[in-house]
From TrEMBL:
Signal sequence extent: none
InterPro entries associated with the record: ABATE (IPR010852), ABATE_dom_sf (IPR023286), Znf_CGNR (IPR021005)
Top-level taxon in the UniProt lineage: Bacteria
Any single Pfam family the record assigns to this protein: ABATE
Protein name: Zf-CGNR multi-domain protein
Organism of this sequence: Jiangella rhizosphaerae
Boundaries of every Zinc finger CGNR domain copy: 116-158
């Protein structure tokens, strides 16, 4: 199954010319969810739209973990005996299925060295990233875009500092 969490929190980005929201239109949202292993029902679309800003706020540290409580409260697993042994089946209401799956993915990215999912370090960027590096030190959702922008800003600031120092000695 295709991971959902990162795509979900990156599915609405506001650009200078306006927002790009992959879940704004019901038909687009249905297709988007189906591409990620969901059914694309009305309940799932509504759940995706509801949980997305909550998850984004939790990941950014702008909301407490308790904000996820409506989804966590309905997480239940039921044991089933089969000829192969014991298996576990999720028992989650349809109107919370997308949120529960995204929260399970989020929980799997938490660890002793911090979260593996975080906002891009570029203050002008709204994207999130999942850090798979050993050191858990990745900063940018895209080195080519945000990383290069940050390097260019630092270079510009250093050159302004040097130029400013020379200019005041004249």
């Amino acid at each position: 199954m295709t991971p959902l969490l990162l795509d979900l929190v990156n599915s609405r980005i506001v650009y200078p010319d306006g927002p790009r929201d992959e879940l704004a239109d019901d038909d687009d949202a249905r297709a988007w969810l189906r591409e990620r292993g969901a059914l694309g029902t009305r309940e799932e679309i509504a759940d995706a739209r509801t949980v997305r800003p909550v998850l984004a706020a939790v990941i950014r540290g702008e909301a407490p973990l308790d904000a996820l409580a409506p989804w966590v409260a309905v997480m239940h697993r039921r044991a089933r005996l089969t000829s192969d042994g014991l298996s576990w089946q999720d028992d989650v209401p349809a109107d919370r299925r997308v949120g529960v799956r995204a929260i399970e993915e989020w929980a799997a990215l938490q660890g002793p060295d911090g979260s593996r999912i975080r906002p891009c370090a570029d203050p002008d960027c709204q994207h999130f990233l999942v850090d798979h590096s050993r050191a858990n030190a990745r900063k940018w959702h895209s080195m080519e875009i945000c990383g290069n922008r940050a390097k260019a800003r630092r270079h510009y600031a250093r050159s302004k500092e040097r130029d400013g120092g020379l200019g005041s000695a004249r």
